[in-house]
């Protein structure tokens, strides 16, 4: 760690006094990479660490890592990353003395607290590096993973920990981020939440995070095990002009495209302005209310047939979990096929068609405003940055308790759609 005077530092050590001179210098950013790699991802964590070492920290950014790797006796480690050097944190009250549970929200809160107290900055960028499952909270633990893709849908959680057989649920994650926002950052939002995990770019996930995060970087589909290029991302902090948080979020997407663009993989990655999510939720609620009435008054299953068509491949982009669909695709399809709605009450039919045309047009614009950067490849090339849950046979169990479902009629529409489809 660079210091101004090695003799003063030595004196501090001899006297047993705090010697973290880094805390005297408040930088623009602290980037904390929370590596929950106590699973099959461990070798890729080391690969990404090596990428960070090619660039490291500078006068604009502190690059920090907290990492869990396999082995019951392998304690959690914290590092300060410089170019060509990773400094293991060993100072009293700063370094973990045992293995921590990376599936515990408190472990994440404590890591952020350590980072901002000892490496203060105006803004926190938090990278959660691990497995992800979107709005789905698995009901069971399983340690088997696919090595080429970060995770398989029935076998993962958020920040999966093999030693403790645990993970963070969506509510756990929201709680941790709320605590970091309110207590660690004293009311200042996390500038960028960078989710290096699968399937997290969902309206439902964004809804639960919107009060604590400014910008979300995440994927609609699976992420491949090597993940992002940390070398390319960190170069942004070394430019003469210090980037704004939204520029960093967009740059992560640009860097991802440089790595995966030449491939034929079904990658996705998007940057979302979470201040725009509330308007999208209101719009989705309006669409859901119109569809609820339409389903109730439909002739010959015209509405349920239309919805199935609009939400299903090949017309709509679906992901590794087929019930996670691209919201923009769905709106576009609904708008284009709205005349297929046939209701018993023709006056109501005309009103619903008109309202749905207006709401979907507004919704498409709102999505475009919220998604400030987006990239997708191969068969996912129509993915526009935000997914939503739309299953055939009822919502996932964890969906019923998510924040989005508690305040939106979309879940009621899903239930009525499932019932009407079976009738």
What's this model, at a glance?
This protein is α/β, with parallel strands linked by helices and 423 residues long.
What does this structure look like?
- It is a single chain.
- The protein has 423 residues and is α/β, with parallel strands linked by helices.
- It has two domains: 22-275, Rossmann fold (3-Layer(aba) Sandwich), CATH 3.40.50.11970; 278-371 and 382-422, no CATH class.
- The protein has helices at 6-15, 42-53, 105-118, 170-184, 203-209, 230-235, 245-260, 277-297, 302-311, 327-336, 346-370, 403-407, 410-422, and strands spanning 27-36, 61-68, 77-82, 85-88, 121-129, 158-161, 166-168, 190-196, 213-218, 268-273, 324-326, 371-376, 387-389.
Give the termini separation: 67 Å
Can you tell me the CATH architecture of the largest domain?
A: 3-Layer(aba) Sandwich
Under CATH, the topology of the largest domain is which?
Answer: Rossmann fold
Gyration radius, in Å: 23 Å
What coarse outline follows from CA principal-axis ratios?
A: elongated
Number of E strands: 13
CATH class of the largest domain: Alpha Beta
């Amino acid at each position: 760690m660079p210091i101004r005077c090695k003799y003063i530092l030595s004196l501090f050590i001899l006297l047993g006094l705090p010697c973290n001179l880094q805390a005297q210098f408040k930088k623009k950013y602290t980037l904390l990479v929370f590596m929950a790699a106590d699973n099959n991802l461990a070798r890729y964590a080391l690969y990404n660490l090596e990428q960070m070492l090619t660039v490291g920290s500078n006068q604009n950014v502190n690059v920090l890592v907290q990492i869990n790797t396999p082995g019951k006796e392998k304690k959690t480690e914290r590092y300060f990353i410089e170019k060509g050097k990773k400094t293991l944190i060993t100072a009293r009250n700063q370094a973990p003395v045992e293995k921590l549970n990376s599936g515990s929200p408190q472990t994440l809160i404590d890591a952020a607290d350590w980072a901002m107290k000892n490496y203060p900055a105006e803004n926190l960028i938090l990278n959660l590096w691990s497995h992800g499952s979107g709005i789905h909270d698995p009901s069971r633990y399983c340690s088997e993973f696919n090595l080429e893709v970060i995770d398989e849908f029935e076998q993962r959680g958020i920040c999966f920990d093999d030693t403790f057989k645990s993970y963070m649920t969506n509510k756990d994650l929201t709680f941790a981020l709320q605590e970091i926002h309110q207590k660690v950052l004293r009311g200042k939002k996390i500038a960028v939440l960078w989710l290096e995990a699968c399937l997290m770019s969902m309206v439902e996930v964004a809804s639960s995070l919107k009060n604590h995060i400014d910008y979300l970087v995440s994927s609609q589909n699976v992420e491949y095990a090597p993940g992002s290029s940390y070398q390319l991302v960190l170069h942004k902090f070394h430019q003469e002009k210090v980037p704004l948080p939204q520029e960093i979020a967009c740059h992560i997407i640009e860097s991802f495209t440089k790595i995966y663009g030449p491939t034929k993989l079904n990658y996705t990655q998007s940057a979302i302005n979470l201040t725009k999510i509330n308007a999208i939720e209101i719009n989705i609620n309006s669409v859901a209310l119109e569809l609820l009435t339409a389903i109730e008054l439909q002739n010959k299953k015209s509405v349920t047939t239309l919805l199935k068509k609009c939400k299903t491949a090949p017309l709509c982009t679906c992901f590794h979990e087929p019930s996670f669909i691209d919201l923009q695709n769905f709106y576009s399809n609904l708008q284009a096929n709205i005349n297929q709605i046939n209701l018993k009450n023709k006056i109501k039919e005309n009103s619903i068609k008109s309202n749905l045309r207006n709401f979907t047009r507004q919704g498409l614009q709102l999505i475009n405003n919220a998604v400030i950067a987006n990239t997708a490849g191969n068969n996912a090339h129509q993915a526009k940055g935000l997914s939503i849950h739309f299953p055939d046979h009822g919502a996932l169990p964890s969906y019923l308790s998510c924040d989005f479902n508690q305040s939106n009629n979309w879940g009621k529409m899903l239930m009525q759609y499932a019932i009407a489809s079976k009738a």
